[in-house]
Known about the structure:
Chain A is of the alpha/beta class and about 450 residues long. Chain A has helices at about 15-25, 60-75, 135-140, 160-170, 185-195, 245-250, 290-305, 310-350, 365-375, 380-385, 400-410, 430-435; strands spanning about 1-10, 30-35, 50, 55-60, 75-80, 85-90, 90-95, 100-110, 115, 130, 150-155, 175-180, 200, 200-210, 215-220, 225-230, 230-235, 240, 250-255, 260-265, 275-280, 355-360, 365, 430.
Amino acid sequence: MALEVEAFVVGGGPAGLAAATELARAGVEVILADEQRQLGGRLALLGSTTVFDGEHTLSAESLRRRLQDEATVAGAILLPQTLVWGLFGGLVAGAVTPGESLGVHARALILAPGSVDRPLPSPGWTLPAVLTPQEVLRLIWFEDAPPGQRYVVAGAGGSGVPVALVLKQAGFAVRLLVETETLTADERTALNASSIPSVEHARIAAAEGQDYLKHVRVEAAKAEQSVEADVLVLATGRTALAELCWIAGCTMTWEPSRGGYVPARLVHLESSVPGLYVAGSGGGVCGFPTTLVEGHLAGAAAAVALGKGDPGRVESLAARRKTIRAQEETAISREMTAQERLEADTVTRVLNQPDLLLCRCERVPIQKVRDVVAAGARTPGEVKRVTRVGMGECQGRTCRPLLSRALAQLLDVKLQDLNPISYRPPVRPIPIESFLRSKG
Amino acid sequence: MSTRAWDAVVIGSGIHGAGAAYFLSRAGWRVLIVEAGEAGSGTSSSTNANLALHNRDPLQPEFPLAFHTPAMYEGLQEELSTDLEFSRRGGLMLADEASDLENLRERAARQAAAGLRVEMLDATMLRQRDSVVAADLLGGVYCADSAWVNPLLVVAAYVAALRRRGGHIWTNTPATAIRTERGRVVGVETPRGVAATEWVINAAGPNAGAVAAMAGVPFAITPVWGQLLVTAPVAPTGVAQWNEAAIVRGHARDGFAVRFLATRLPSGNLLIGRCELRGEMRRRVIPEAIPQVLRRAIRFLPLVGGLRILRIFAGVRPFSPDGRPAIGPVPEPHGFALLAGFGDKGIGQGIAAKLLAQALCGEHPEISLDAFAPDRFYSPMARADST
Lengths: 440, 387
């Protein structure tokens, strides 16, 4: 079925909801699609732990509900369980719901896909219940299927703290928070108040167990410890979920301070593809205050482009965005820098563990990658074509950056000088049944 | 050999370009490949790579190329000491209409006479040969000689062997001009500099027309876009390649000329096709073509309905002006050869690269190249002048 709409917002997290609200209030006909059953993006995963929206501190659940209500009241059409799997020329989106396949033709398209958590390799990372925060929290909140009772959370630059807190609040035992660098005083206070033990300047050495996780081996400066756990949550790899930007042909730039590759954006958040805006962490990892103002800014800018908005509002939102981003710079930078250091360090170690799988889906060990490089492969694409790295179920989501980093180290070149392995639609495996059901 | 830097510059590192470079270097030539992208990243990386014989008619001039190519890849595994994932897995033609079954029967007789191992199958025998095909098909043909090879491994092996013999490949380096002097090729211009050479081999796939124009040679490639859907892995069944028999009827389905074919890769994934859009040069996914291809696939292989799609990629099939490959030197300029226009039968006719190398070395190619000589495109005057 083909849907024609003035504005299409992809992603129903805080940025997407804010954009949809802004557009609807300006009188633009807007549809929003989110692949989850519940809207709110990361807010829907944080239970009632507190977040800061730029003005007030409130529970994640209250903020989530407020944003959804605002969008609904303003007149935006919200479509949960709707996955946008590809973008094609002329702002055409391929979307799929459990029952139906849709083609959406929009005059303005706002991408607000948020950030994605990627796991870093370690011995045992293929064991069941070594998961990312999004994976774990979706299982808990959306599927009511917690993967275990006892959790170890790994973080870098403070990234593990919100995850540990929400797990505790949800009633699980958080045996240890492992931080690669240092926690802030506030973070230590919050963890103590929730009786969550933590260790700093420490890293995950290995996940151990026979058929499933039993222990997590943690390596700190002075000592090693082994913690019994059912689930290891790797909260150490948050980056912009930029697949649709790549597929749409947006110009991408390498910005490690915002998590990695991000779409190049103009001051009103338009990408290099005319009519395509990117707002929120999908344009570079950012905090909630930024995602909200960016959602409003992109919505306002798109409304003006459609002949309906108020240019004055766009300017004032742009100014506010600049201020808010500057305010969060330190905190985001702390997290992203720690993450980058951990990833670089992890890949260095992993290159010396020849049997460790670099690509879990296709079961390709490090040694195989080293072999093909020794035989002359010089780019991620060349490695992928002869080893199948990135061709499996996750289509490179986990291993793409690892492969680039491994090659950068093996070839002694800069990571950003290597083209990552290509992105192809669909962004997630799609049941063929869904492609075929179409009303009209 | 000459005093020039290279004995041959091959433009394009797909299955044919990389192959020609390898076979020439094996004969002692100094060969440079100039590749605009990465090795094998063109049409050779967007194909199902079937070395299909079950769907080939011995009446076609290309039949000998298709017939002898599988054994060539098999031999290469030993020659290059590399696993190319070659296997003779057999292929099935499937008929769902009586007229198609008749056509298959006639052709099967010719295939058998030409030395292919073919079996004519009625509905029952078809299900015995492969239990996953739809129960209501009328019958088909099984050919045990159909094979498969991994084209990306082949290209990588060709390039590695080329390097071992002192050859080179310049990747991310397009050919920008071809220099000629007094009716002879003298070099290829690239952003990395000029490669002085005795021979230029145009193996540029969809870009072969543009490259030919650089040498002043008229050679139009008609691009025909296609798209493959990759599913999550499935367990092995009786065969690994399926084609529907209908050819003419396929063109009736919208602009995309949909006709079912599927390949099961060694990794277990199914590649599902087939669709066309003539004249489309861009390798882009076209969502409108997806449902028809899927419906046709489900009609022949019902299990497809329960699978998931992991990836969709597009490719461009490069067709020559008369639909037959162009293999060999052109009348002028001297030293310019075509190895192009393979259309939708590139990987399966990979022996063409070896034959061209033989011809350029002054040997009799082991299969006659007469039907593929480029001079069929040029005027009798040009042919007479080419001494």
